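In the design runs reported in the main text, the only information available to the sequence generator was the tokenized backbone. The following block is the verbatim input for one such run; it is reproduced so that readers can re-run the procedure and compare outputs position by position.
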């Protein structure tokens, strides 16, 4: 069964967009089913850069169906801007290439305003969200007051729901946060016009995906964020508001776990994190800055500098436990060229006691001191390597050691941002 999940095995921004773009060639349909436009997935194709926040990274492959399934929280303004941009660059010529879940929840201006106001109020304890309204939108979904794409497409239903929600949200904004209220008539008119434009893309995406699978099509599921940002299993409260792990992708797409044939965890050859929260291997000096500069580690969504650190084995082993990884796509190996010695965190010490698991009690994780194994670096530029054997011996040894320590094989090694700067060691659609 060749339906494959690609998800982040660290704290996000691992290079999922690039990996999904590569695997899309072998799939028929590509689906996103978690998160929203907090995601920023960058692809570079023959030097041309694309950043997607909502639309699956398979969209550049003509003829591949792309699905934004109902687990995604959709900001209609962002979706339409992405559609317009693609069309202006001569992609998405056939609108039937894109399907949007009619049950997907919609991000409205009060979600964004509440996200911002809450972060401001938290001050130094803030989470460092992307301020895109993701948390407040998922909260409304769970509270059963969310507005879905199918509601947005029905003017009377939408107006009624918006009016009721604004009564509560404006009370909170004005009286609790001291923030500006959201105007009802202008919001209604603006969003109804978005609803009108989105209506042609709306379908039952669970039905569509299952029909695709039943007819033998290969589906690629594109994860967003990373395992350690999962609402249940991540470094709570410094997480996002959805399940970023494999089970979340199944729920979000309405495709059963037994239909999935493999899970590829994308991991950088080091690790990064944006926003606040514990990060044991974080580098604060020159080495961290060198990785940030060489790896262009600035957020695709918010432009914030990403925190950079050494590869953390317990984190990826934890991602393997939660997702049962069938392979790792190891990205950005090229970025480590020129660092004389590499460090790999193999365990933590907490209050003098060695731990090999990720301690999910925040105060413990905050006290975790990494136990490092050191490895020799390499000087060579890796960006032209296309076979594993093209890599310098020290780089090969580094990859093999990560495989041993994580217990998962590196089925893909990425040596540059461009689509072709990739070593495919095993193709999950053919394995
Ligand atoms: P995503 O959110 O997981 O899709 O990752 P992002 O797109 O936010 O961040 C990954 C960044 O690294 C993007 O700018 C990619 O173009 C870039 N990238 C991906 N793979 C590689 C690689 O192997 N080497 C280098 N140098 N850059 C890469
Ligand atoms: P992709 O798909 C990295 C982080 C934010 C913040 C926390 C909560 O590009 O890998 P939110 O706006 O979701 O409420 O923010 O989660 N975060 C990400 N970090 N990559 C992402 O997505 C992220 N999406 C959310 O920085 O720490
Ligand atoms: Mg990203």
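Verbatim output:
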């Amino acid at each position: 069964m060749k339906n494959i999940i690609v998800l982040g095995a660290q704290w996000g921004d691992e290079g999922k967009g690039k990996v999904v773009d590569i695997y899309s060639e072998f799939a028929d349909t590509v689906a996103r089913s978690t998160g929203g436009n907090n995601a920023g997935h960058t692809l570079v194709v023959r030097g041309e850069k694309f950043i997607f926040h909502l639309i699956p990274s398979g969209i550049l492959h003509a003829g591949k169906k792309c699905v934004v399934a109902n687990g995604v929280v959709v900001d209609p303004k962002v979706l339409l801007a992405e559609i317009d941009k693609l069309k202006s660059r001569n992609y998405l010529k056939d609108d039937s290439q894109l399907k949007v879940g009619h049950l997907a929840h919609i991000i409205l201006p009060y979600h964004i305003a509440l996200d911002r106001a809450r972060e401001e109020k938290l001050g130094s304890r803030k989470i460092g969200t992307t301020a895109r309204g993701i948390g407040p939108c998922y909260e409304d979904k769970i509270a059963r007051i969310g507005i879905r794409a199918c509601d947005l497409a029905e003017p009377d239903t939408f107006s009624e729901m918006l009016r009721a929600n604004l009564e509560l949200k404006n009370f909170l904004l004005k009286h609790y946060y001291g923030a500006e209220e959201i105007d009802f008539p202008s919001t209604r008119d603006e969003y109804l016009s978005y609803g009108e434009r989105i209506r042609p893309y709306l379908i039952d995406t669970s039905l569509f995906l299952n029909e695709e699978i039943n007819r033998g099509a290969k589906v690629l599921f594109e994860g967003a964020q990373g395992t350690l940002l999962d609402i249940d299993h991540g470094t709570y409260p410094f997480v996002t508001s959805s399940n970023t792990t494999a089970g979340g992708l199944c729920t979000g797409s309405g495709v059963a776990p037994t239909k999935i044939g493999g899970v590829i965890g994308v991991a950088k050859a080091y690790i990064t994190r944006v926003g606040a929260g514990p990060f044991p291997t974080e580098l604060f000096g020159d080495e961290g800055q060198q990785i940030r500069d060489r790896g262009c580690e600035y957020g695709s969504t918010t432009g914030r500098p990403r925190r950079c650190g050494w590869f953390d084995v317990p984190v990826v082993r934890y991602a393997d436990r939660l997702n049962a990884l069938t392979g790792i796509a190891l990205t950005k190996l090229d970025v480590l060229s020129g660092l004389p010695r590499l460090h790999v965190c193999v365990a933590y010490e907490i209050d003098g006691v060695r731990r090999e698991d990720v301690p999910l009690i925040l105060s413990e994780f905050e006290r975790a001191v990494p136990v490092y194994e050191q490895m020799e670096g390499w000087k060579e530029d890796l960006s032209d390597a296309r076979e594993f054997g093209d890599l310098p011996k020290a780089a090969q040894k580094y990859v093999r050691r990560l495989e041993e320590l994580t217990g998962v094989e590196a089925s893909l090694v990425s040596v540059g941002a461009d689509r072709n700067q990739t070593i495919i060691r095993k193709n999950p659609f053919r394995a």
